[in-house]
Amino acid sequence: MLNQKIISAEKKYTAFNKYLSNINAKKIFLIHGNSFYKLPVANFFDSLKINVVHFKDFKPNPDYESVKKGVEVYRENNCDVVIAIGGGSAIDVAKCVKLFANMKSGADYLQEKIFPNDVPLIAVPTTAGTGSESTHFAVIYRDGKKISVADSSALPCAIMLDSSALKFLPDYQKKAGLLDALCHALEASWSVQSCDVAMAFAYEAIRLIYAEKNFYIDADSSDTCRANMLYASRLAGMAINLAKTTAGHALSYKLTSTFGISHGHAAALCVARVWKYMHKNLNRAVNEDIAEILPQIFNQLAACMGFDDVDAAIDDLQKLLTNWNLAAPLKDNFSDEEILELTNSVNVERLGNNPVRLDNDAIKIIYEKILKGEFF
């Protein structure tokens, strides 16, 4: 398990107040989106005797300029604690603010060496999907390009899993978040950097997601169901924290930025095709050891999803996208230039984490399938 303090959300956040007192918090830098004001936890921060500086000047898939502004506001107000309440975007901004807080003012933070600092970072996820509260890396964008910022000190020192926040999620965000967590767990399982611990986290996350997914999407989902989804998201985050993501995520980022769809939506469109491609092309495994174990991993994943057959499990994932109205195509016609731009956008580093080789031709085929709304 991660070395994180788990703060209880019960009894009007008494434990949260006690934790802030224990770390001697004097001025909180609170990062959140507009939905924060609808949440029960907002009343807690309104009642605090500690000074709170609010920061919400960022968008989904936050850019470097937003982070830079956040660092400036943090410093100008002499804050000493960073708290993120929101989805992956809020938590990623918070991680970067913490990491950049002790860098030279006015510097290009992305070019500076990261030196760990003792600024407490607390995460309160309000979506069940990104698992960002359980990872040591953040994703931001600069000039439209995705940039990963990673350091062990970016892992939040404490988290609060408050299932009441999930009541207020729109239907699309619920679905996209669930799919994001599912994709994290699937990719962490077959990643070449995976290990027994990561796989255990991933398998349990998938079991929970498939047990709860239909109840969770229902508007009247129970608090227990929402709590289970938050926990599944955290498990999936813990899995990718060890194993990292693979080709599915590598292909997804350009879809998100180009078509304005949710990251979880884009990831699922890619992972469903990538998994099918890998299952059909096991002879392209990166080495003999992977070739031997990969069918076993795929069978275990299918079993966690409740299927005896890998193809049936993949087909069910594809049907889920259709049934939830998350299927492609994303527009009517695509030029060769657009397909080429997508193909060339793929992060080669993440492809190195994939257990089956994907060359440009394979990537092009996968994108064509996605854009035409077709499966293998």
What descriptors fit this protein?
376 residues, alpha/beta, Rossmann fold, Dehydroquinate synthase-like, alpha domain, two-stranded antiparallel ribbon, globular
Task: Compile the SSE list and pairings.
Blueprint: E1 5-7, H1 14-22, E2 27-32, H2 40-47, E3 51-55, H3 64-76, E4 81-86, H4 88-100, E5 121-125, E6 137-142, E7 145-150, E8 158-160, H5 171-190, H6 196-217, H7 223-243, H8 247-259, H9 263-280, H10 288-304, H11 310-323, H12 336-344, H13 348-351, H14 360-372
Parallel strand pairs: 1-8, 2-3, 2-4, 4-5, 5-8
Antiparallel strand pairs: 6-7
Helix pairs in contact: 3-4, 5-6, 5-7, 5-9, 6-7, 8-9, 9-11, 9-14, 10-11, 12-14
Shape: globular
**Strand content range:** 5-15%
CATH fold-level label of the largest domain:
Dehydroquinate synthase-like, alpha domain
CATH class of the largest domain: Mainly Alpha
> What's the number of helices?
14
Q: How would you sum up this structure in a few lines?
A:
With 376 residues, this protein is of the alpha/beta class.
Give an overview in words.
This protein has 376 residues and is an alpha/beta fold. The chain has two domains: 5-165, Rossmann fold; 170-372, Dehydroquinate synthase-like, alpha domain (Up-down Bundle), CATH 1.20.1090. The protein contains 14 helices and eight strands. The chain has helices spanning 14-22, 40-47, 64-76, 88-100, 171-190, 196-217, 223-243, 247-259, 263-280, 288-304, 310-323, 336-344, 348-351, 360-372; strands at 5-7, 27-32, 51-55, 81-86, 121-125, 137-142, 145-150, 158-160. A six-stranded parallel β-sheet has the order 1-8-5-4-2-3, with helices on both faces. A two-stranded antiparallel sheet has the order 6-7. α5 (171-190) packs parallel to α7 (223-243) and α9 (263-280) packs across α14 (360-372). The chain is globular, with a radius of gyration of 20 Å. 46% of the residues are buried.
